[in-house]
Fold this protein.
Amino acid sequence: REIGDRRGEGNALGNLGIAYYSLGQYERAIDFYQQRLTIAREIGDRQGEGNALGNLGITQLKLGQYSEALNNLDTVLEIFRELGGRNGEAETLKNLAELHQALGEVEVARQYARQALALATELGIPLQSECEALLAELEQGESS
């Protein structure tokens, strides 16, 4: 703040949010993510906006704030597709699968999980194993 580096300030706020999230202090994390989002929008940082909204979405999912999480994750997906951020797109698809799973919308969750798995596999990123586990869980839940 002292040197006027708005992007750096936004990144620092986002990192503080991640730290509070990892400590299970979700409301505090949301506060930092919202500050991060405000700065990203003020300076036109679409990547930062996507990251902040994604972090907000997964935190809201943890808190059972499903409507807010869905709105944020849908926006994140649009942003990452617009920017060509394929890793972020894959992560967001997995998060949307988890959200729809929490809502009891198993078929929708399965569709998102399949998309996430296909993209993660194509990219060769570690998210692939998480997607495989989620899809197996969704398939298992359907057969029980």
